[in-house]
Automatic annotation (TrEMBL):
Cofactor notes: Binds 1 [4Fe-4S] cluster.
Pfam family of the protein (one): GcpE_C
Lineage: Bacteria, Bacillati, Bacillota, Tissierellia, Tissierellales
Positions annotated to bind [4Fe-4S] cluster: 265, 268, 300, 307
Name by which UniProt lists this protein: 4-hydroxy-3-methylbut-2-en-1-yl diphosphate synthase (flavodoxin)
Record pathway: Isoprenoid biosynthesis; isopentenyl diphosphate biosynthesis via DXP pathway; isopentenyl diphosphate from 1-deoxy-D-xylulose 5-phosphate: step 5/6
Gene name linked to the record: ispG
């Protein structure tokens, strides 16, 4: 059992973050935001995969205006990612963004910060502030001898103070680094310093092959310690892979029950069917299925039957054939070329 740190609760649209709410999964579009059709199409795929909150870059006023049209077509809340230009933050608020990702220290004069804060108060939307290891303020680099957990955390605290001076407290915080160890250390330190909800992620994690490993270690370690309220797996890839990886991290820690939990054996010389192909095809079919099930696909009769019996449904394979189990009971024996189709058929029957 993971004992999560209870943080302040804020709402991004109808999705709560913090306050011991469920841990939400985020991703970010890589379409041109003003291309409403393409952006909506991508978001719908992410929704179907289990994305709870979507972030998108707002680079100009056309992007900001597109938010209102995008919002009509999707079912998850929007975070507008703003860099430097306070007018874009104001426009995003006017066009029904559900939250703003912005560092107040980057938008200039204090009156600009105040205008953004007042707009967020009026529209009742939160602000996520954050520091990446590559964007630590020089003052803190000098004070703490370079990029480390202290310079990252105190840079974030300064951004928060700019908002708090304007009596604004609907804040979430991220403290990302490309180094897994530095990411973990920074979030641990900040968690002891503040009760604002935390957005977890390892920034610039890379391609799926390496980025999923880095993210699973970084995000997973913190979640296992009870730290973190919302997550994004940042990958140089289709955002769909970010959402799938995020779900898998939460499932591995028993922090998310929705969706298929697929377990399979690593194969060995006892495996007499093409288990790798069966599992790969099963993953494609099962990842978006809206059923809360544990599915086991096991390659041989040594450990297979036992593992399959522990699952809601599963396969224990033999020589060119396999047994389909449900709740420990044998349903049928089927040939190898029908294993997957018969398994999927039985899963569809489960309510």
């Amino acid at each position: 059992m993971i004992n999560r740190k209870e943080t302040k609760k804020v709402y991004v649209g109808n999705v709560p973050i913090g306050g011991n709410s469920f841990i939400s999964i985020q991703s970010m579009t890589n379409t041109n935001t003003k291309d409403v059709k393409s952006t909506v199409s991508q978001i719908k795929k992410l929704e179907n995969a289990g994305c709870d909150i979507i972030r998108m870059a707002v680079n100009d006023l056309e992007d900001a205006a597109a938010l209102r049209e995008i919002k009509k077509e999707i079912n998850i809340p929007i975070i507008s990612d703003i860099q430097f230009n306070y007018k874009l933050a104001l426009a995003a608020c006017e066009n029904e963004s559900d939250a703003i990702r912005l560092n107040p220290g980057n938008i200039g004069a204090s009156w600009k910060v105040k205008e953004v804060v007042e707009a967020c108060k009026f529209h009742n939307i939160p602000i996520r502030v954050g520091v990446n290891s590559g964007s630590v303020k020089q003052e803190f680099l000098d004070k703490f001898n370079g990029v480390n957990a202290s310079s990252i955390c105190y840079s974030a605290l300064e951004e928060i103070e700019l908002l708090e001076k304007n009596n604004f407290y609907d804040i979430a915080v991220s403290l990302k680094a490309s180094s897994v160890n530095l990411t973990i250390e920074s979030y641990r330190k900040f968690s002891d310093m503040s009760n604002y909800p935390l957005h977890l992620g390892v920034t610039e994690a890379g391609s799926p092959k390496k980025g999923i490993v880095k993210s699973a270690i970084g995000i997973g370690t913190l979640l296992a310690e009870g730290i973190g309220d919302t997550i994004r797996v940042s990958l140089t890839s289709d955002p769909l892979e970010e959402v799938i990886a995020g779900k898998d991290i939460l499932k591995a820690l028993d922090l998310k029950r929705e969706g298929i939990d697929l377990i399979s054996c690593p194969t060995c010389a006892r495996t007499k069917v093409d288990l790798i192909e069966i599992v790969n095809k099963a993953e494609e079919k099962l990842y978006s299925m809206d059923k809360n099930l544990k599915v086991a696909i096991m390659g041989c009769p040594v450990n297979g039957p036992g593992e399959a019996r522990e699952a809601d449904i599963g396969i224990a394979c033999g020589h060119g054939e396999g047994l389909i189990f449900s709740k420990g009971e044998i349903i049928k024996k089927v040939p190898e070329d029908m294993l997957l189709s018969e398994l999927l058929s039985e899963i569809e029957k489960i309510g």
